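Researcher: I'd like a candidate sequence for this fold, 282 residues long. If you have to choose between options at a position, lean toward the conservative one.
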């Protein structure tokens, strides 16, 4: 629901931003026309030295004179200035200025509202690093990003060796290596803390299950015969998780150790700003 609300807020902000940009856009077009007319007037004045000279139809000055008549005439100037060309037109410069000022202030107000909506529609991207696996295209679904939380010691062991399958205890998706779709949701699911691993996984053959189908894979490796991965579609999509049977499916990963569990932060003085390391060895 929060994601849908944020998306709706962004959509409303975009519409307000688009409407608010119409007035400045049209004003820019009008200013461009005015500058074009000024430039043509200058060219006309430069090319009108011989006013009494008889010119042929193919003379370039004839074309210039026509351009002067079309673009430098009073009706054209009135059109660019958004004035009426009717002979009975009564100029009202103050009213015209007021209307233009109101439109300009209105567009500025819409842009400010759009900026406020953009700023307040914060979407927690950590809860949805990417779409659900089942919603990806076949080309995108070959690999997937998952998050695994463990102790700092286990993370160091993984860095020097590899992931190990969970083969004991109660395993909701069966035996294998577990990953969550969301960083935030790993805190409530993981049995250990101290380090976070973000990994890219080759999914292979995937068995998607819902809550009512968990009994088919719980505490078992029977699904290993036909599938490489079990993906659990939770009722709340940011709580999805999946289990892979083979650590070789984990292609690459990044390990982040919590500061409280990393003694080297204080040891090397990395908890404060500095220009160079003390021992010059890292």
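Model: Candidate sequence:
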């Amino acid at each position: 629901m929060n994601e849908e609300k944020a998306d709706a807020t962004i959509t409303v902000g975009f519409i307000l931003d688009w409407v608010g940009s119409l007035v400045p856009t049209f004003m820019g077009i009008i200013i461009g026309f005015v500058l074009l007319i000024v430039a043509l007037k200058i060219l006309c004045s430069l090319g009108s030295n011989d006013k009494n000279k008889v010119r042929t139809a193919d003379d370039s000055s004839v074309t210039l004179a026509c351009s002067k008549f079309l673009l430098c005439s009073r009706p054209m100037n009135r059109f660019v200035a958004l004035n009426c060309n009717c002979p009975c037109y009564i100029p009202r410069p103050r009213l015209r200025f007021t209307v233009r000022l109101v439109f300009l202030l209105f567009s500025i107000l819409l842009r400010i509202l759009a900026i406020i909506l953009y700023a307040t529609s914060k979407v927690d991207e950590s809860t949805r690093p990417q779409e659900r696996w089942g919603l990806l295209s076949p080309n995108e679904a070959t690999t997937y990003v998952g998050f695994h939380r463990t102790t700092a010691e286990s993370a160091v062991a993984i860095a020097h060796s590899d992931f190990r399958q969970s083969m004991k205890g109660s395993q909701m998706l069966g035996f294998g290596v577990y990953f969550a779709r969301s960083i935030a949701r790993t805190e409530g699911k993981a049995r250990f803390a101290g380090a976070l691993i973000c990994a890219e996984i080759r999914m292979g053959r995937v068995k998607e299950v819902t809550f009512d189908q968990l009994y088919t894979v719980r505490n078992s490796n029977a699904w290993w015969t036909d599938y490489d991965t079990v993906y659990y579609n939770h009722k709340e999509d940011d709580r999805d998780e999946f289990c892979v049977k083979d650590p070789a499916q984990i292609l690459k990963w990044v390990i982040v150790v919590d500061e409280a569990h990393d003694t080297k932060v204080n040891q090397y003085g990395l908890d404060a700003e500095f220009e160079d390391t003390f021992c010059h060895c890292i």
